[in-house]
Every structure is written in structure tokens, then in C-alpha cells.
Amino acid sequence: MAIQNTLELEAVLTRVLTKLDRQIAERGTWPLLEDARRTMEQVRGASRNGAKLKEMREKLRSASETIISEVGADGALHDDVWDVEDFVDYHV
Questions:
Q1: pTM > 0.90
Q2: For residue 72, is pLDDT > 90?
Q3: At what angle do helices 6-27 and 31-45 cross, to 10 degrees?
């Protein structure tokens, strides 16, 4: 489902962060995923600042690619990550 506003963006990012926390906890340490998680946390912090979100576009794209490649079996997580990218690309 496409994200329509910043409140939905924050909710989806919270869901993404929760899933990433769970993945990291199950594996122990996971440096690539931990870096991607930090980026998603920064995106959530900037969610109400359109200019800052635009600045983070490339960093978000890199984090999204990392999440998708590192967490292969979670289609819902992938969808959420793509929805966040789409929102930043088309609504900000």
C-alpha cells in the first residue's frame, strides 16, 4: 500500500525498524544490516522535514538495497522499504 503522508511514513519506518531489530537480534551482529538500520532511523527522524528527506535520498536507496539483499525471505519488509523509497521520491 502506498504511503500517503508523513504519519504513515513514520508508522512504516517504525515497522521496518522493528523487523530489522528482530533480524539483528536473531543473528547477533550484522554490520551491514546495522548500518542500514541506522540510516532508516535517520530517515524516520527527518520524516517531517522534506528538504532533509530529499538530501537523504541516495543514502536511503543504498540502505534499501542492503536490506533487500541481506534479508531475503521477508517480502513484507521489502514492500515497506520500497514504499518508503517511493514516498521520498514522489511525495517529498
A1: yes
A2: no
A3: 160
